[in-house]
Amino acid sequence: MFFTNPKLRKEIKVECDNTTFHLFYREQGCRLSVEKDDLHEVTRLINCLSDRDAALADISPAIVNIDVEEIISTLDKLGLLEEGSESLPAPSGVLSGEDFYYSRLLPTATKWQSTFGTSPSMNVWSRVPLPRVKLLALPSSTITWSKCLPPSSPHP
For residue 80, what are the domain limits? Predict the structure, then answer.
């Protein structure tokens, strides 16, 4: 079997009427019809697959009249199963996106910006607050100041 601890997807709704189980998943689903003699075991299996805390290995020895692997294989082919989260290894050394941004990316970007983002004009701008209208030209290392004319005035 491919799964260690298979579970039905969280979005699946299970309904049972007499000897038929209906599994609804978005726009699709399936119907599982069982004989009356096997109804109790299939009910236990479906409940185990639905319950996030139950382990299939605990109830599998008690289910002898039905082929559990065939049912799980069929449900898997239909895309109705996923691996139970408790059977997956716990991640180590992994950061969430937010943790990565604040602990690694932002300090590195700030360091690069302070190291490489200092041009001569940037140094002047950081020391002297300048109104935009007063800035006319920025040659390589000097700043030229000039009084700007209003847009309606003709140039001299």
Answer: 6-87
